[in-house]
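Q: My labmate handed me this sequence with no annotations at all. I'd like to see what the chain might look like in three dimensions before we decide whether it's worth expressing. Could you predict it?
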Amino acid sequence: MDAPHDVVIIGSGFGGIGMAARLLAAGVRDVVVLEKAAGLGGTWRDNTYPGAACDVPSHLYSFSFARKTDWSRRFPPQEEILAYLWDVAREHGVLPHIRFRTEVTGARFDGRAAVWRVATAGGGELAARVLVSACGQLNRPALPQIEGRDRFAGTSFHSARWDHGADLAGRRVAVIGTGASAIQIVPEIAPRAGRLTVFQRSAPYVIDKPDRPYRAWEKALLTAVPALHDLSRARVYLSYEARALGFVKFPWLMKPLERRFRRNLRSQVPDPRLRARLVPDYPMGCKRILLSDDYYPALRRHGVELVTDPITRITPTGVRTARAAYDVDVIIYATGFHADGFLAPMTIVGRDGRTLDAAWRGGARAHLGITVSGFPNLFLLYGPYTNLGHNSIIYMLESQIRYVLGCVRALRETGLAWIDVRPDVQDAFDRRMQELMRSTVWAAGCSSWYQTADGKVVNNWPGFTFAYRRATRRPDPRHFRARRARPATPVRAVPG
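A: Here is what I predict for the chain of 496 residues:
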């Protein structure tokens, strides 16, 4: 087993790369990033389906400390985001600290030594004074529990595990799901498929996507005058942040956005019967709002059919509903992710042998979405209550990264072995989140991945992102219990 490392980070997506980069910049050299895959990138490595792109403008969907002025488009495509992450890792010295093909199976807090014992697949183990989970919320594909799914004789795969060897040309293809991935996939494969059947359980709100390529002179100007890039970033941030009022405080303010949706639908779907099936039956914003200019036109193509009858089972030859059978050659499951497990399927054991699963029975809880009582020196990035419906998650991640840096600095400066958020502080935060959640559009009665099985919303931040940044400006010593380090095991962290 290695000697204890200062910080071990699990995952190399935006959270893991950003955390490692800021630690290294602050002088923490003993940083290890554990990545189960052969390459970095998280969700932008895994989701390589046709049309994969971000729905947040590129100037804001990037780190403030790693400016990129030559994005190809206003909304960046998957391959460009992945290349950006590789560039950040290289330029900020993170790559030598990543151990690829190293899957974490669990971690146990050793109170006597004040370290985390991190277990990896194959029987390896590392020790960490500080453990940071940067696994994200959308990394475990969810396959629907449909009778007969395993008996399908054709080709089938989840959108996040795209089978690039599957030839869709002239084939009968079924896409199950109409969420964020499906609305990007359908327009891309519709021209190639011989017949495309889209199975919709719940209609999404789809509004226009003001995307365009950046001109060469624009990119040159942004590079020559960095202040213009900062101004563009600020403008996008403010325009998106203004929508928070409708999401978290006054849902009736979503009405103008709903009118925009209806105008978009009317202009792109003239058939009133098809249009009626594409109107959601829940308040706008209760589920994720989607952006696309080509999804509705794709549904109007010859050979494309939208099915809204519930699926009853999968047969060896296709998909069956109560009314009809659809023979297909390929089934694509665009059915989202298991979003409420956070660190699953890892087994995390804190003080007194308590597991994180036990602590989170009834829903995930973490103070500021970052620290969990009973799990000292464990920090979560993109944890509960930190997802957004209106702005860039990178902004939220940078707030969390700064908070974790503050905790690492405190460990060194005060000579502490560990800090552990007090249970009453965590409980008060959770109660406050649930109080605020009652006025949000996410609590308006629909079912979404933002919720636990019993309907509790635990994924989203019920406020402004600048309020979250203020709340995470620095750790409050009054929020923590602590133990001093033994002289034999000094804590190394950010130099003072």
